Amino acid sequence: MSKLIDYAEVQKHTSRESCWVILYGQVWDVTNFLPNHPGGANIILKLAGKDATEEYDPIHPPGTLEENLPKSACIGPINPTTLPQPVKAAKDVGPEPDTQVEVPLAAMLNLDDIEAAATKKMSKKGWAYYYSAADDLVSKHFNNTVYRQILLRPRVFVNCKDCDLSTSFLGHKLDIPIFVSPAAMARLAHPDGEWGIAQACKKFHTMQMISNNASMTPEQIVKDAGPGQVFGWQLYVQTERKKSEDMLARVNKLDAIKFICLTLDAPVPGKREDDERGKFIVEDTSQAIKDAGGKELKGGGGIGQSLFFGTDPTLTWTETLPWLKKHTNKPIILKGLQCHEDAYIAAQHTPQVQGIILSNHGGRAADTAPPAVHTLLEIRKYCPEVFGKLDVVVDGGIKRGTDVVKALALGAKAVGIGRGALFGLGAGGIEGVERVLEILRDETATAARLLGVAKVTELGPLHINTRAVERDVYDGPANLPGIGGAMKGLWVQAKL
Amino acid sequence: MSKLIDYAEVQKHTSRESCWVILYGQVWDVTNFLPNHPGGANIILKLAGKDATEEYDPIHPPGTLEENLPKSACIGPINPTTLPQPVKAAKDVGPEPDTQVEVPLAAMLNLDDIEAAATKKMSKKGWAYYYSAADDLVSKHFNNTVYRQILLRPRVFVNCKDCDLSTSFLGHKLDIPIFVSPAAMARLAHPDGEWGIAQACKKFHTMQMISNNASMTPEQIVKDAGPGQVFGWQLYVQTERKKSEDMLARVNKLDAIKFICLTLDAPVPGKREDDERGKFIVEDTSQAIKDAGGKELKGGGGIGQSLFFGTDPTLTWTETLPWLKKHTNKPIILKGLQCHEDAYIAAQHTPQVQGIILSNHGGRAADTAPPAVHTLLEIRKYCPEVFGKLDVVVDGGIKRGTDVVKALALGAKAVGIGRGALFGLGAGGIEGVERVLEILRDETATAARLLGVAKVTELGPLHINTRAVERDVYDGPANLPGIGGAMKGLWVQAKL
Amino acid sequence: MSKLIDYAEVQKHTSRESCWVILYGQVWDVTNFLPNHPGGANIILKLAGKDATEEYDPIHPPGTLEENLPKSACIGPINPTTLPQPVKAAKDVGPEPDTQVEVPLAAMLNLDDIEAAATKKMSKKGWAYYYSAADDLVSKHFNNTVYRQILLRPRVFVNCKDCDLSTSFLGHKLDIPIFVSPAAMARLAHPDGEWGIAQACKKFHTMQMISNNASMTPEQIVKDAGPGQVFGWQLYVQTERKKSEDMLARVNKLDAIKFICLTLDAPVPGKREDDERGKFIVEDTSQAIKDAGGKELKGGGGIGQSLFFGTDPTLTWTETLPWLKKHTNKPIILKGLQCHEDAYIAAQHTPQVQGIILSNHGGRAADTAPPAVHTLLEIRKYCPEVFGKLDVVVDGGIKRGTDVVKALALGAKAVGIGRGALFGLGAGGIEGVERVLEILRDETATAARLLGVAKVTELGPLHINTRAVERDVYDGPANLPGIGGAMKGLWVQAKL
Amino acid sequence: MSKLIDYAEVQKHTSRESCWVILYGQVWDVTNFLPNHPGGANIILKLAGKDATEEYDPIHPPGTLEENLPKSACIGPINPTTLPQPVKAAKDVGPEPDTQVEVPLAAMLNLDDIEAAATKKMSKKGWAYYYSAADDLVSKHFNNTVYRQILLRPRVFVNCKDCDLSTSFLGHKLDIPIFVSPAAMARLAHPDGEWGIAQACKKFHTMQMISNNASMTPEQIVKDAGPGQVFGWQLYVQTERKKSEDMLARVNKLDAIKFICLTLDAPVPGKREDDERGKFIVEDTSQAIKDAGGKELKGGGGIGQSLFFGTDPTLTWTETLPWLKKHTNKPIILKGLQCHEDAYIAAQHTPQVQGIILSNHGGRAADTAPPAVHTLLEIRKYCPEVFGKLDVVVDGGIKRGTDVVKALALGAKAVGIGRGALFGLGAGGIEGVERVLEILRDETATAARLLGVAKVTELGPLHINTRAVERDVYDGPANLPGIGGAMKGLWVQAKL
């Protein structure tokens, strides 16, 4: 066992020239790694000379250190008796922790209750990362309120004793039409992280898409998969393609992962101010806006931007899909389509592409981007044949079972939840995620039965009144009178 | 007289194996009844070993004990000197009681004043049961605000000295076009209960529909009926059909009951969170979420769900109406139609079916279901002949006389109030219900006179401007261009 | 001089059998007058045995006592030393008086400032009478917000050095296109009352319509009229026609009164709850809801309802106009038209009828009645020829000069203010009314110049964008497909 | 050096007959100048006998004294020892200064943060001048919210690694499509004033239009211009044309000024109440509403109205443009067009007129005037050829990069900010303006990349969904059925 290192010694290494941090009781020299850190050097320099474990742990899957640093970078164990008191986490942003008696999960009746409970229990930084969305949160809120604009059309005198909630995606049966969308950094909510979400999905026999930025490895997440449990793996293609190829090679080996979900709606990071403000809330303001080297940090920041580091913004239909074909045989689904034109193009790429997720990234990419309901209605209007060629699912804004049946009635095969699952995890770990799925399942069943369908797959546009939404749906470019009919809306890139 | 039983003895019987409760001073052994309780066993187990009278009384009509339990189940009278102090009812949910000076009924100028007064006087549990609606209360609020979207078109220079407010329903004359819809559990508001509502209706010579879940027996409710007073009796068909058949047999004998109101809009219970939360608000939180047997209670609950116990969700046009014909000669009206297609089908079932109530169950079933005004406009648009074949009435959201005249102008023969009558009862017993009817009658007369009609039966679509509503009314399934005109909207189930 | 009467003696006469009140220091026996009081007997009985001067004075024009009571009813002077301390007026309803330093009129920049200042200075009862409107104040607020829905279309490069604001009505020139609509009970705001409003109108050379329920006599109001000053006199036809005929005879003699304004929009009183609540706010609640005879007072009340006493609700085109012709040679204008059909009919009655006021009575009659802007747009849509036959003016909701130019652009020759003038009076007497007219004049001039017109009479529909309003304007009866085009909207009573 | 003058002596000269003020330590006799002061005599009389430097300095460019007063008017230096303590500025209107720790510029993430910071640091008078807009601020707010009504239509699988943000105006290249609109009185925010704004524009290589009412001379503002830096100079034509001609002669000599921006949207001042209220907030209320001569000041006032003094409201297409041609060879752009008709006429005046700014003067002229987005859509609808003939830019309401791309997608070549630059100056001087430009630049780049364009000049109506706005855009005069199609909207003045 190596000699213990005093904290005073560590504190001498706080510059770009020599930068040490303490992680899990070990002192690491990360000087050479600084320029390669996906989140940028500054984020490390702010922690130089300190114990970075609390900041590092929930956002890095196991193995990250070992993969990225040579063994020699580990200098040795810290002398714990020399460490100062742990700094309190009061520098985080978000709501104040609540000291009231804890509400039991069973008494949380809806997803707002769940979010409120998670907000009380989570760190401010984690809350800010989950809660945040682009700019003024217009799309985030619209994702939800657009469902309130749609009215149900219940039928009477229909036997609705039972309602079959099962659906399928890419041929895999799901017991409920609700799945977990790729959502990063689950361990910010709870130590069970993405593995915990997987346990809840197993119980309800539904699908989970694993975020490219999960806080656990894919192997960890799927290790306790049940029979027939369905996972997808989300890919953000890296500028350094080799990294993506290595990752695909790992994923190819995991049978539980049935498809690759290529995310397209965030080639550059949106501006998530709630998340970014965290950077400026520190104990010593005078120091806060400078990096360890003394250079002032300007604008941006937060967990969201760090995660985008290395993402390739140059993807195209003609280059990326063929490259992907070379590196995996798993089917591809495309995530983040927001207009019918792209859905139309995607349908030209079967059989490699087998599904699409209509999504505006939970309102976290371009603010004022349309909700998935608009894109569903655009596809119905201009190119309904897409529904026959691809499995179409949606995410964003789902809070109620009535939202679920409305999306299904418009042609979605299932709906994804992101924040819902993460806040469930924050509210109660695995049981919290289960409670979220249980609430949505029960509400969906009630809504479907009141609509008079025996199976959710029977739901169609006859069951809903979408007039209030339809009049806002894209109707072709403004004032271009020469273009009419279906062609008016269809704007397929010439270079396709 | 049997020997007095000590409270200490009763408290020993609190399990599924032996469960005693005190009711009206008598100790009952309800162990064998537990699995048969319409509200589920848990609700009884929570009261095991205690005096349950306060909880039991307002929601069970007289005779319930006798009908459901053998004489032997009555063990004997409790020794009152051994009883603890009555537990205070502070565990209920809802607004805090107000200690201000009581406002006289005459100073309550509108239905909001009435509701505010009732809210102050009622138990929190009763308030929560009445106030609650499904999910986010979208339909409950829309039921009311949709009337604000309609503008009146007053005419001038018309003799409006008098205005005849009378209307008819199934051939029975009503002095005012406002009736009381079936609304359960009136004794939660006031000991006079549904009988009290009947007295007020007698005074105004209008119609009352008796809830299947009334807190009094039909015989009690109609016993003081005036000459020509009109009652309907609401039927929730029970899975155990024999129960419904027995009940119909009783009702058939009551001449004051002129028709059967078959309720169709709630084959499964909606999710009424204000009501359900009551279950989790108890003095001892650690115990609250378990039943007496120690099993945790999860989700749901409340009075609303209990009442649905036993309701048959398998009703159909082809099976249920013929069955009903066998068990009653009274005419049938159907309650809870929410789209023109079902109104169209109902009109095919004359003469057995003679009327329909357009209703979304006060927003208590499917949230975001359309208000009755939408359904009226749908019928006008797609199948106006329905108005000639059936007596159409509506309920939900009526707060003002202007609301009443708008519904009549669109073709309704009368409008029903549910919460309005119950809150009137809560605010002042019989006189409170009378005040509610008086307010609505006077407001209706004022509105009709300002519109320039001598009789409310003259009201028609020329008297109102519905453009702001019409553009939201169902216009056929979204983006199905092949279907047009009247056919576009008419979606009659193939299996009819 | 008669013997002084002790207060103790007066207090003995508080019943229907013997009812005395003190007015202006004299004791009157009003027992025989009780059944004839326009406001009902109860309102007097509540003041029986007391000094009623403070309640009586601001709402009765001089001469009222002498006209209605025989000399013998005056018993003699009260002995002032026996009177109790004057009761403080704290029983009134409305906002609390403000004790801040008074704001100078010049610092009140808009009509909201004026209303706020008047609210602070006026009695609560007076405020409630002015502020109140029917039911939920929907029409009152819509009267104003509908103007915000219309956009201006300013033109540039137009010489707008001067702008001629003058207009005409029935051939009489007005220097500004803003007049004072008939508004009752001006002395509730200020002792100068309607005479004070006349002085302000003289200064701005504009028109005033005298309310049938003015708190001063027509003779008093017009006595200081300037040269060419224009008055109209509002007529509510009384059931006791003789009263109206006598009044017309008086008015016929006054040259300053150029026309009769026959009010049609309030044949029965609307329900003005702010006004009515005043009745129930008294010092001794137990007594408040009974009249002096011990009978409980139920519902309604307030100044508004009292004023309607005696109004004839049987007026018709065919009976009333010929009767009126017999009793006056002055031209007639009709107030309160709210749909194009009635405007169309009015235009058939030239030359007796020469103008119309589109008005919903300030939102005080039928709540959810359309604002005058809707009626203007209806007329433009269905029968624009009306503008050529009649002088059309509007009132209701005017708060800004931009509102004025919008009404003019749609065809109104001028706009009336009601509450604006009354609150001006309350805020600062004559100078307050002048300030109101000055603010609106200056704002109107600014708006007209920015639109690029040299005279307000040049304003037309090209200067405004009304799309947001037009889509809500009446489009014919809902779903009556057989009726189309102009006929769709035109619903002329068969009995015309 | 002249003899020092005692403050007591100065204080004797406070009337129209003899009026002295102290400016920059010198005593001036301004008696003869009183009738010529652009802001009116009153504003000087209020400061008569006092040190006026604090009021005078930020709103008068250097040289103003020398240009307007003869040398003899300078009486001599004040004796500083006789001056009273400087009066504190607490009489200003606006938010209370904040005493919290200052937020660093980098932590201001958006333009609202910037405005909040400036509001805390600026004088209340300066804040009120910047913040204020006409009447009820309807147009000011609509300018911003109309952008929220437009949805983006992001495309996926497009290489968006880089995005070229450059655009051009009148042939001059700008690195970002965001420029500074003419905005008066920059030194109210910061001593660096308009020169400071110029430094920030230099850094981002973008355009600045210099306000006619700048608080610095054009020579001062452009003196440190970078190579290729583009300025425009705003002209309010003065009634006293000679003044405008002299000013044009000065401007003609400045090469950095590339064009003249003739402002047309404010021939008369709007009513900016926040600004005007400042006049009435003084220490001694009794005196506040009188001028020094004892005459009461009525209505209006504020900085805004003062600045309009002398502006010529008689400009016309036929007179003003030829006059302008005689006095400058620089190209002309017209500012303040608000309807397509005027844009159409402007396009007839090439080549003298080369560009237009669609603007409602930041909502400061006619309230309820349309936002520039409406005018863009009007031009697209009725006369899209205008975009080919003129460089069209917009200002008003820009707060986000998404707003910028939406305006560009509709045909604008760039967008202007006014308050944004001024509040940036208030928040942090030159660096504050830079931070504003940096925020908008980064947000614009993010939005453009997420839309999938490689250059902002590729943006077009296909990238946005404007349906929610289009239905409110002018559709021709209301109910004039005879006029249709493009002609319906086109209302070109006959006198053109």
Main-sheet strand order of chain A equals 7-14-13-12-11-10-9-8
Radius of gyration of chain A: 24 Å
Low-pLDDT parts of chain A are: 87-95, 281-300, 481-485
The coarse silhouette of chain A is: globular
- Percent of residues in helices of chain A: 25-40%
CATH topology of the largest domain in chain A: TIM Barrel
Topology:
The structure is a homotetramer of 496-residue chains.
Chain A: H1 7-10, E1 20-23, E2 26-29, H2 41-45, H3 53-56, H4 64-68, E3 74-77, H5 111-121, H6 124-131, H7 138-148, E4 151-152, E5 167-169, E6 172-174, E7 178-180, H8 193-203, E8 208-210, H9 218-222, E9 231-235, H10 241-252, E10 257-263, H11 273-277, H12 285-288, H13 302-308, H14 317-327, E11 332-337, H15 340-347, E12 353-358, H16 372-382, H17 386-389, E13 391-395, H18 401-409, E14 415-417, H19 419-451, E15 464-465, H20 467-470, H21 485-489
Parallel strand pairs in A: 7-14, 8-9, 9-10, 10-11, 11-12, 12-13, 13-14
Antiparallel strand pairs in A: 1-2, 2-3, 4-15, 5-6
Brief summary:
Chains A, B, C, D: Its cofactor is heme b; FMN. The first copy, chain A, is α/β, with parallel strands linked by helices. The first copy, chain A, has an 8-stranded parallel β-sheet with strand order 7-14-13-12-11-10-9-8. A 3-stranded antiparallel β-sheet of chain A has the order 1-2-3, with no helix packed on it.
What does this structure look like?
Chain A has 496 residues and is α/β, with parallel strands linked by helices. The first copy, chain A, has helices spanning 7-10, 41-45, 53-56, 64-68, 111-121, 124-131, 138-148, 193-203, 218-222, 241-252, 273-277, 285-288, 302-308, 317-327, 340-347, 372-382, 386-389, 401-409, 419-451, 467-470, 485-489; strands at 20-23, 26-29, 74-77, 151-152, 167-169, 172-174, 178-180, 208-210, 231-235, 257-263, 332-337, 353-358, 391-395, 415-417, 464-465. In chain A, strand 11, helix 15 and strand 12 (353-358) form a beta-alpha-beta unit. Chains in contact: A-B, A-D, B-C, C-D. The interface between A and B is large, with 48 and 55 residues.
